[in-house]
Design a protein that fits this description.
The chain is 44% helix and 17% strand. The longest helix has 33 residues.
Length: 452
C-alpha cells in the first residue's frame, strides 16, 4: 500500500440511483480540480462547486457537483476530492476510468479509513466503527456505532491506559531503587486500582453479547407443539403472510428465517417445526433442526394453545429456558375458552394474544423490547460494539491484570508485577491500534467496502 499516491473509488453502491459519488484522496486532488474543471483562482475548502466534468480528451461527460477538502481537515487527513454525478453506473464508471487515466489508483477495500487511521484522524476502534455504522441493522445499532465513531470506546480505553501508565511508572521506580520496599498502604492502592480495572474489563467482555444483539440481530426462536399458532405468530409480527398456515398439524417441516425491526432492535425470527413425537422421517428431521437452533438462540417465544392443555417441552429445550430469555405466548384467546397453564414454567412472563386477530401483538412487541433491553446498558454512552478482535485483546488484558494482582498479593518480585502490567498496556494498545504490525492492519481493513 503506497500512501504517497492519490487513490480513487466510487463510494456509492452499484446500481441506478439519483446520484453517485466518487471520492479521491492524496496529493493530486487539488490539481485534479484545476485540470478537470479548469478551476481558476482560489479553491475554497468544503465549498460545493457546480461544473461540467471534462475528460482528458475534452469530452463533457456529466454535470457534477464537486467539493475539495484540504488536509489535514478531512476524513483521511489528506487532500480529498468528492464528486457527485448522476447515478447511472455508466457515468460513474466513465469518471472513475478518467481519474485513473489521470494518474489516480483504484483504492483497495478500506484504504480511505486506513489512511485516516494512519494519519491520526481516528484510532482503530473508530475505524472499525465506520463499517459497523454501514452494516447497522437497527436504530440502537446505529447509535452504538456512532457513539464508537465519535471516540467513546477510545476515550474509555485511553483513560484506562493512562491509569496503567501511572501505576507502571510508580512500580518501576521501586525497581530502580531496590532498597525501598513497597509500603503496605501503597500496595493497597495498587490492589484496589487493579481490581477496579478488572471490573471494568469484565463489564466490557460481558457487553460482547449485547454487541452481537446490535450487530447481528436478536436470534428469536418460535417454538411449541404443532398447530399452536407459531406460523400465525410469525406472520403477525412480520405484518405479512410469510408462513403457510393450515389447520393440519405439522405443516412446518423446516425452519423459516425472517428479519423484523421491533422497537430499536433488529430481530431474527425463526419459525420452527412443532415439537412432538415425529410421525415420519421428514418431520423428525425438522424437530432435530429445531433442537439444534435452540443452542444458538438468544430469545425464545414458547407458543401454547390457550384453549388446550399445556404441552410438555423436551428436557433439551427446558434446560435452555429462563425468565431472562423466554416469553410464554398463550395464543388463540379469540376462541373464548381458557385452559389453566400447567407447563411448569409459571415463573416466565406470559403474554395472552390472538395471532389471528392481532389482539395482544403490541403487548408482545413491548415485552420483547423489555426483555432485550434488560441485557443492555441503559446508558446510551456505554453502548460499545465489542467485536471478536476486541474480546481477544480484552481477555489478554484481564489475564495480565489477574496475574499482576496475584503476584502483588503474594509479595512476589516487583519486576514480575511490572511485566504483567506492561502486558496489560500492550493489550489496550492492540485495541486502539498502537501497534506496528502491517499484516494485522491488512487483515482488518480488507473486510471494508471499496471507497470506505
Amino acid at each position: 500500500m503506497h500512501v504517497s499516491d492519490t487513490i480513487v473509488a466510487v463510494a456509492t453502491p452499484n446500481g441506478e440511483s439519483a446520484l453517485a459519488m466518487l471520492r479521491a484522496t492524496g496529493p493530486e486532488c487539488e490539481s485534479l480540480c484545476r485540470s478537470i474543471f479548469h478551476h481558476k483562482g482560489s479553491l475554497l475548502p468544503r465549498h460545493a462547486y457546480y461544473d461540467a466534468y471534462r475528460s482528458l480528451d475534452g469530452e463533457s461527460i456529466d454535470d457534477v457537483v464537486y467539493c475539495f477538502f484540504k488536509g489535514p481537515r478531512s476524513f483521511t487527513g489528506e487532500d480529498v476530492l468528492e464528486i457527485s454525478c448522476h447515478g447511472n453506473p455508466l457515468i460513474a464508471t466513465r469518471l472513475l476510468e478518467d481519474l485513473i487515466a489521470r494518474g489516480c489508483r483504484q483504492s483497495e477495500p478500506g484504504e480511505f479509513s486506513r489512511r485516516a487511521f494512519e494519519n491520526g484522524r481516528m484510532d482503530l476502534t473508530q475505524a472499525e466503527a465506520v463499517m459497523e455504522l454501514i452494516q447497522a441493522r437497527s436504530d440502537k445499532a446505529i447509535r452504538a456505532a456512532n457513539n464508537q465513531l465519535r471516540g467513546a470506546f477510545g476515550r474509555q480505553l485511553n483513560s484506562l491506559r493512562q491509569k496503567l501508565i501511572a501505576s507502571i511508572a510508580t512500580i518501576e521506580a521501586y525497581i530502580d531503587f531496590p532498597e525501598e520496599d513497597l509500603p503496605p498502604e501503597e500496595k493497597e492502592v495498587y490492589v484496589s486500582g487493579i481490581q477496579e480495572l478488572m471490573t471494568y474489563c469484565s463489564r466490557l467482555i460481558d457487553s460482547g453479547r449485547y454487541a452481537a444483539f446490535l450487530r447481528d440481530g436478536v436470534k428469536t426462536l418460535i417454538l411449541g407443539e404443532p398447530n399452536a399458532g407459531k406460523s400465525s405468530l410469525l406472520n403477525a409480527l412480520l405484518g405479512f403472510d410469510r408462513a403457510i398456515v393450515s389447520r393440519e398439524p405439522g405443516t412446518t417441516r423446516d425452519f423459516l428465517r425472517e428479519r423484523v425491526i421491533i422497537g430499536d432492535h433488529s430481530i431474527q425470527l425463526l419459525d420452527t417445526a412443532g415439537l412432538r413425537t415425529a410421525r415420519n422421517d421428514i418431520e423428525q428431521e425438522g424437530i432435530r433442526r429445531t433442537m439444534e437452533l435452540a443452542d444458538e438462540t438468544d430469545l425464545f417465544l414458547v407458543v401454547e394453545d390457550s384453549s388446550a392443555p399445556s404441552p410438555s417441552l423436551p428436557d433439551g429445550i427446558l434446560s435452555r429456558l429462563s425468565s431472562s430469555n423466554c416469553l410464554l405466548i398463550r395464543n388463540k384467546i379469540d376462541l373464548g375458552k381458557q385452559v389453566p397453564d400447567e407447563a411448569g414454567i409459571e415463573c416466565f412472563r406470559k403474554i395472552e394474544l390472538s395471532a389471528l386477530t392481532g389482539e395482544g401483538i403490541d403487548r408482545l412487541r413491548s415485552a420483547i423490547v423489555d426483555l432485550i433491553d434488560s441485557h443492555i446498558s441503559s446508558d446510551e454512552d456505554d453502548l460499545i460494539l465489542v467485536n471478536a478482535r476486541h474480546s481477544l485483546a480484552l481477555g489478554d488484558l484481564k489475564s495480565c491484570l489477574e496475574s499482576a494482582l496475584m503476584k502483588l498479593e503474594a509479595d512476589e518480585a516487583i519486576e514480575l508485577i511490572a511485566s504483567d502490567m506492561r502486558g496489560a498496556l500492550d493489550a489496550i494498545g492492540s485495541i486502539l491500534g498502537k501497534i506496528d504490525n502491517e499484516s494485522v492492519l491488512d487483515e482488518l481493513f480488507s473486510t471494508f467496502c471499496i471507497g470506505k
